Every structure is written in structure tokens, then in C-alpha cells.
Amino acid sequence: MTSDPLRVAVVIVTYNSADTLGSCLASLPDGLEGVHVTEIVVADNASKDDTCDIAKNSGDLPVRVVEIGRNAGYAAGINAGVASLGPHDAVLVINPDVRVRPGAVALLAKAFDRPRVGIAAPRLENPDGSLQPSLRRPPTVLRAWAEAVIGGNRAGRWGTLGELITDPARYSVPGPATWATGGIQLISAEAFRATGPWDETFLLYGEETDFALRAGRLGYLTWYSPESVFEHDGGESGTNPMLWALLTVNRVRIVRRHYGFLAWLGYSAAVVLGEAIRAAAGRPTAKAALTALLRPSKRLRVLPQ
């Protein structure tokens, strides 16, 4: 690294994001202070609202729209946006429901001063200023069974039993993480080139896990930087049956791909049990997930257009 400001490109993946994109773009001038912004790309998954018009009329910001032509998913948006970029040192990948706090990107970029860091993740806060847990531990069979029996939130409060790290103390300390929420990441150009494109077959959820694990195998760390703060609205995966089913299936796919057949057997059995328990209690999201887990023909392979 030289003393010159890091050359940062921004890729925002959108789909019917007119309600949030304007505030995201408005936060960028202050949020990107201290880095050299090469360009800002809005990779749009065939929005039917005013998303593209908002992007194209964003004032003095160097925004360019890449229209994908269909609702191809988050990974496809990232890949299309990054493929269109000129020279850059790092790419900031963000959701449109994100606001960048002043100076947050420059603070996040300091993570690359450490050897082997390829992905930098910030502290996420809800709009009310409260912590939004975003760091994960490696998925294991034990953790899957714990979450199935007592629930993910309870498991997260018991030492290291849960995959999601919920201890607020952890979020005040910088350090490596297995993976972090993909809605806000700063990825070095070197790590992106070495790791390759994000896997578009995940559509939504799990693609950031797969990318971080692949990068990790190549020696690139994911580094958490609490001094860099982004505001994030959060998604609908916990309430939308279609999205919860997709998220759940992709969790199991990750284990099969990265941890082997035996781990997949134990992990998938635990996930099926957990969803069955919650489906029996009448939870629509669990019913959808259980159907997708047990009947592969019912799994979502193309997002609604």
C-alpha cells in the first residue's frame, strides 16, 4: 500500500429500491471522504419502480447504472457491477438500504494495512442507533442442533454456541471473523480477482458466506472494524416465507460445499428438525423452509421477475 488514498469503487445492487436508494446515495459524499472514489455503479435487477431514474439523477455523484435485465439476484448484481469497473484498489459493496456514516469508508479501508486482509466489514447499526449483529462463527453440527432445539437467538447468548455472534462486547473489538453480513463489505481488488466471481446460484443469502470461505482458503482474512459504522435497515428474511426458505436451503448448501458430506448429514438433519418444530407451531416461514428442504423440486431457482 502507498500513502495515496485508496481508490474505491462502489457497487450498489438494487431491485425496486426507490424508497431507500436516494438516502443511500445522499450519504455517500461524506461517507466516502478520505478515499479516492473512482466510480459509483448501481447494478439494477430489472426494477419496476423509479430506482434507475433516482440513480441517473443523483446530482454531482459519478453514478452509472448497469441494467442487468432480469431479477438475477445479489451475487449477479455484484458480478455485473464489478465487471464494469475501471481500475480500483477496492470495491465497496452495499445494499441500497444502507446509509454510510461520515468517514466510515476510509476507516474501513485501514483494515487493508494489516497483512492478508481481503474483506473488511464494519459495525452495523439499526436506524435507532442500536447494534445490528452481523458477524458469524463457522457453521458446525453442534451449533445447528443447538439452534434447532433452543433457537438461534438463545444459542447466540450461550458462549460460542450460536452461529450468529450476539455478544455486544465482541462488536467493540476489531479482529478476524469467519464471515460477515454481505450487505456492506469492502473487498480488495486483489482478493476479488483471486477468489473469482460470487456464486450466482445462491440468488440471495449465502453468497457472501461462500465468497468469504473461498477467500479464506486462499489466505484472505475477513476483518471486522468497529470504528467504521454503517446504518442498515435490515431485510425481510425473517418474515417472508419465500426468502426464509431460500436462506435456510442455502445455509445447508454452504455446509455441503465447504465442510463435506458427513458434516452436511448432521447439519441438515438439525436444520430440518428445527424447521419442523417451528412449522408445527404454525410459523409460515418454517413451513416454507421445511417444504424446500424436504422437496428439492419446490426450491426457488429463479427469483420472481
TrEMBL record:
Pfam families: Glycos_transf_2. Pathway: Cell wall biogenesis; cell wall polysaccharide biosynthesis. The keyword Glycosyltransferase applies. The keyword Glycosyltransferase applies. InterPro entries: Glyco_trans_2-like, Nucleotide-diphossugar_trans. Residues 10-126 form the Glycosyltransferase 2-like domain. Keywords: Glycosyltransferase, Transferase. It comes from the Bacteria. SUPFAM superfamilies: Nucleotide-diphospho-sugar transferases (SSF53448). Belongs to the glycosyltransferase 2 family. This is GT2 family glycosyltransferase. It comes from Kibdelosporangium banguiense.
